[in-house]
Predict the 3D structure of the following.
Amino acid sequence: MDAEHSEICDFVFAHHPFDRLPKEKWAEVVKSLSLEYQRRGSTVLEPGASNTALHVIRSGAVEIRDAQGAVLAQLGEGDVFGARSLLRGGKVKHSVTMLEDTLLYQLPGEVFSSLCQRYPQFAYYFQAEGGQRLRDALNGNFGPGEANAELATIPITKMLQRAAVMLPSSASIANAAQAMTAQRVSCILVVDNGQLIGILTDRDIRSRGVAVGVSVDQPITSIMTPTPHSIASNVYAFDAMLAMVRHNVHHLPVLDHGRPVGVISATDLMRQRTASPVFLVSDIDKQTDVEGLARVSAQLPKILVSMVDADATAHSTAKIISAIGEALTCRLLDLAQEKLGPPPVPFVWLTAGSLARYEQTAHSDQDNALLLDDAFDPDLHGAYFEQLSRLVCDGLNACGYVYCPGNVMASNTQWRQPLRVWKRYFNEWIGSPEPKALMHVSIFFDLRCLYGAEPLYQQLQLHVTHKTASNHIFLAYMAANALHYHPPLGFFRNLVLVRGGEHDQTLDLKHRGVIPIVDLARVYALSSGSADITTQDRLAAVAGKGELSAQGAEDLRDAFEFISVTRLRHQARRIKSGQIADNFMAPSELSNFEREHLKDAFRVVLTLQAALEQRYQSGRFQ
């Protein structure tokens, strides 16, 4: 291959989907290309004309418009056009005009057709829409990994080793011990008339029976755990692990329409690499001081890396990381109350932001608040809750969850208030949506009860949901606020990088990647009256219900997953290299495959942002 052909080859096969073709085919493709120069303003394709080639932009820029003159896309170096018309037999539907003086490589239509027929991975790029390409990438084409280790894909029933060992409540502790020994199991289910009423483990027999002198002739109900946490038989192994992490248990009864069919244990999950979070949370519960919790929390980056290496989804990884953060907070609250005594009035520890949405990745700053019962008296009770808040916030900081830069923490008196004051806060934010109010809204509309009197939180949640769903002016302001951050996709589909500062020439995958989708989902959820908190749940709840089409919601969910996976893989690479995980990725970290699908994800977000902006401007929230 001569120098000219080598240069063409280096350019063309550096771009997707040509990089999917086998190398032995490259020289043949290059020889079939012709070079064409087009002046600015010239039109190479028009509706009704016949197209005979696939066009690859070597330099310059083009604009594509539909028959009504609406701009559909602006393309730049490395982009292609003309494929859709070739797939229609050459019939052109859209016009293509040069925005700059442009050089085009032209691949003859017959060569294009031959490549599509012989290489499905090449043809697929031109046949699928961006949202569908994202779905397929997420369904198995997104890089290497141990997919068989992904608990989110394993039905819980496939992990059941045997049928459950069951005894009635009338059985004695001796009967239970004999049955467990004979069946070689570590627990039995206590079942009456087909209904689960309790669980008894070998640990229960030791700690609640033998250790305290309970007679083995006593009924098993005297030492069993009543109404244990359980899981349905139609879920996945990941759901079992998450339940174990959240509730700090090592055995979960599996129920089929309410009837027990087996037990899944932490030992079963140990066979999978991603089981370690269960035992990390168990370690958290054993710690008796902040120093111990900090040592356990230091393992969190390893958990993130192990899940990324196991090719776990971003959705499942974030849920596990969030569950660990939740467990740390709850243990700190327990330790604080052991030191200070029981609370003088009911309270709720509220978490906000990514932890509230179950979307944490690596350690992040803390966003939290205290909701107090209206019986709260500052003079009588203020000192207690101030000390409790400081103990927990200081403890979280020691565990790697640094203090919130904006001081949105329960240790700040402003965010440690009774229910009546929180209601007033929300009334003011919703009634007068000025910039500062919108900032608070973006934090406190992602709010969850982490610990404490949940009925108290439910009162606040009902109040807020009622206020927002019917307030069209507030929703319009929220819609405008959701358009503050745009994905980093430039005018010609090039990636827009951070300029200057510490993160010069990187992609901001948080503020320009996941946050725009989080903001869109929040607006749609508020407008529909949905109380869902996670981004994925919000999009699922509003899909096809007027504000957002089912297809649009699915595309956004896939875009969110793909961008989040890319972000997690970047963080895992930094952790492995001894660096602190962050959200700023150099484009050089991306393969061509990842780069093109990341552009697809950003384009989905831009499209839905444009739709939201149009709805807001036209007053369709009314």
Remarks:
- The first strand starts at residue 34 and ends at 38.
- Residues 141-149 have pLDDT under 50 and may be disordered.
- DSSP finds 24 helices and 21 strands in the chain.
- The longest helix spans residues 314-340.
